[in-house]
């Protein structure tokens, strides 16, 4: 692996994850390897550290670095970091007491900066965005799903609804509900499982509610107005925006990708048959080149407004997030969700800048007094 002597004027950066009995540590190893390679090329000392090994009252701790081939990971002694890039892999890990305690200790530590302390909850996001006028206009009507009455009430105003777990990701557990009053079985529930999509039809809201209950189990759900998305050859697409803080500590759009839904899929996720596309060409299909450019600019502006509002309302220090935004047939921009542990973007230009920004922002953080 391409190495360079770390520049002592630059902060030591640690990628934080949790330990694993068999594999040393959890998380996406390819991603960690790319981050470390980029950091080294930029003159930073950077390593992976587990919650267990991050002992805040010691001078030297154990970190992991990849071997030259990148296939193995060595445990080596390293100095404590100044900046922690939080990559705790999932909510279950994050909610464990020792993990939560360690994050809290890092947040209080006078010489360490940790950003993105936790995952977002979908309901909180909508509450936060409704608080500001500038962002509330981009938020679909959303309520907590507690009873069948919520569905009945929302179906009065919206033809179709999305039902989503508050802690969901990658399309898991998402359902879409439609209502056709003039048919025998007016309620139509589409349930996504893997690449397939099953439809359940019900005569009454009671029957429907029972079916939804079986599907969602004890998980908390939100219910949301379905936005009729602009399409490309009959398939809806949405936009995935990566936002990061730059070397001056200001929010910036690192890149925008488009995801086109798979045939008959109710979401655009790649593992569910969706595909990666170029945002401009997706928008040009419906809106033409001039209008497409205006919409894409508006997507960036909206994403920046949303990121600032999320950060303000969450009262935590954030340095990056990805955002799923939809564009309706009139060119309106809608917020679907934001994720505080963005998955890697496969578009090469976005990927490259996203890796560099981790260090540019880390450097900025280390120059701020806490
Ligand atoms: N209200 C909505 N209207 C139209 N499409 C939606 C709506 N909510 C979600 N979707 C579609 O489903 C996808 C997944 O929803 P999202 O909220 O991002 O859940 P997940 O956390 O599972 O990714 C979105 O990217 C979008 O394509
Ligand atoms: Mg999503």
TrEMBL record:
Listed SUPFAM superfamilies: Glutathione synthetase ATP-binding domain-like (SSF56059)
Source superkingdom: Bacteria
- InterPro entries annotated for this entry? YheC/D
Q: What is this protein called?
A: YheC/YheD family protein
What is the organism field in this record? Paenibacillus silagei
């Amino acid at each position: 692996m391409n190495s360079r002597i770390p520049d002592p004027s630059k902060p030591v950066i640690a990628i934080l994850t949790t330990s694993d009995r068999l594999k040393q540590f959890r998380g996406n190893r390819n991603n960690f390897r790319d981050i470390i390679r980029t950091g080294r090329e930029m003159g930073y000392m950077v390593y992976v550290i587990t919650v267990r090994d991050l002992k805040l009252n010691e001078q030297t701790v154990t970190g992991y670095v990849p071997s030259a081939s990148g296939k193995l990971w060595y445990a080596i002694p390293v100095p404590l970091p100044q900046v922690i890039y939080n990559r705790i892999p999932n909510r279950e890990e994050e909610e464990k007491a020792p993990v939560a305690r360690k994050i809290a200790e890092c947040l209080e530590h006078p010489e360490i900066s940790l950003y993105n302390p936790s995952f977002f909850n979908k309901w909180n996001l909508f509450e936060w965005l409704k608080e500001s006028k500038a962002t509330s206009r981009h938020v679909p009507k959303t309520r907590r799903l507690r009873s069948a009455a919520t569905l009945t009430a929302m179906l009065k105003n919206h033809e179709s609804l999305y039902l989503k777990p508050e802690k969901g990701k990658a399309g898991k557990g998402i359902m879409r509900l439609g209502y056709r009053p003039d048919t025998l079985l007016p309620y139509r529930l589409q349930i996504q499982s893997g690449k397939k999509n099953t439809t359940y039809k019900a005569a009454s809201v009671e029957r429907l509610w029972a079916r939804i209950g079986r599907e969602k189990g004890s998980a908390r759900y939100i219910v949301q107005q379905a936005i009729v998305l602009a399409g490309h050859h009959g398939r809806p697409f949405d936009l995935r925006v990566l936002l990061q803080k730059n070397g001056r500590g200001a929010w910036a759009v690192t890149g925008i990708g488009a995801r086109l839904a798979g045939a008959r899929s109710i979401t655009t996720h790649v593992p569910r048959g969706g595909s990666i596309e170029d945002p401009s060409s997706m928008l040009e299909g419906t809106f033409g080149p001039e209008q497409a450019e205006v919409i894409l600019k508006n997507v960036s502006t909206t994403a920046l407004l949303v990121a600032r509002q999320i950060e303000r309302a969450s009262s935590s220090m954030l340095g990056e997030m990805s955002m799923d935004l939809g564009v309706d047939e009139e060119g309106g921009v809608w917020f679907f969700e934001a994720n505080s542990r963005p998955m890697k973007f496969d578009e090469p230009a976005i990927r490259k800048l996203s890796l560099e920004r981790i260090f540019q922002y880390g450097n900025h953080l280390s120059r701020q007094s806490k």
